[in-house]
Amino acid sequence: MTIARPCLPKDVKAVSSCPENTVLTGINYLKGQAPVLAMKDEDYPPWLWNLLKPKVIPDDGPGGVGEKIRMRKENRARIREQNFMKTQ
Predict the structure, then answer these.
(1) Which of 38, 59, 62, 75 is the most buried (most CB within 10 A)?
(2) Helix, strand, or coil here: 14?
(3) How far is CA 40 from CA 6, 8, 22, 45, 48, in A?
(4) Biggest alpha carbon–alpha carbon distance for the chain
(5) In the UniProt record, does the keyword Ribonucleoprotein occur (predicted)?
(6) Where are the domains of the chain?
(7) Partners of 23 in beta bridges
């Protein structure tokens, strides 16, 4: 079972959405801080490009990690539904 996230095809290399030296507004939150500029794609760490890949949950049978993750997800959804119904 996988969690749905936007992903890229395996053979396509991810590229940033803004060109180099673009001012990224809203990132610097300290007063008087210099504006944050976008870097070249090669200057970013390699793990950054893996954030868009879907998370793979192992299917390791009953009592395994995959089942625990699935049960937690279902429990959270049930709690959200119950809380929503309380507000109606």
Answers:
(1) 38
(2) coil
(3) 23, 20, 10, 11, 13
(4) 55
(5) yes
(6) 16-53, 55-87
(7) 37
